[in-house]
Design a protein that fits this description.
The protein is mainly β. It folds into three domains: 2-62, Roll (SH3 type barrels); 65-123, OB fold (Dihydrolipoamide Acetyltransferase, E2P) (Beta Barrel), CATH 2.40.50; 128-184, Nucleic acid-binding proteins (OB fold (Dihydrolipoamide Acetyltransferase, E2P)). The protein is 2% helix and 52% strand. It is built from one helix and 16 strands. It has one helix at 95-98, and strands spanning 2-3, 12-15, 18-28, 36-43, 49-55, 59-62, 65-75, 79-83, 90-94, 110-116, 119-123, 128-136, 149-154, 159-163, 171-175, 181-184. A six-stranded antiparallel beta sheet has the order 1-6-2-3-4-5, with no helix packed on it. The protein has a five-stranded antiparallel beta sheet with strand order 9-8-7-10-11. Strands 14-13-12-15-16 form a five-stranded antiparallel beta sheet, with no helix packed on it. The protein starts with a strand and ends with a strand.
Length: 187
Amino acid sequence: MISVTDLRAGIAFEEDGQSFTVISYEHIKMGRGSANIKVKVRNIKSGSVVEKSYINGAKVQDVLVSKREMQYLYKDDDNALFMDPETYEQVAIPLTVIADEHIYLKDGDSFPVSLLKGEPIGVMLPPKMAFVVAETAPGAKGNSATNVFKEAILENGLKTKVPLFISIGDKIRVDTRTGAYSEKASA
């Protein structure tokens, strides 16, 4: 058993015969009453996202999750395919399981894949990844004292806001948790 106060993003647990993985965690303490723990979770089998609320001190059944470094190969309409570089075994992860994370996957890159009883349940992305700007308005020298942004489309199809000095072909780092511009990457 694991205390609900130990639930964090990426942790898996079981409740009522269903397995969930935590997307976000929020600890709410109001006045004199006991604290509430709100977690947004994804059902591992169905991919549906729900919010759950627990009182402080509640416990849930923890599950053993293993991680294996796997190379991303490609994605089709329903699955993202990964390969174990040691055994060359290929694993298909349904896009419903990895949700919006699949847009950050680059062919040939390696990622830790979380496995529950041998079934893939998620991909752990680094906090920031570098992408090339494919489309944006022409670069301009602007007032750097204010945060003025323009729309840009990256090589992976992601739309994000970038500073005025960013041009087509520039490499930028994007926060994989929010999809927001983080910094200009070195070439």
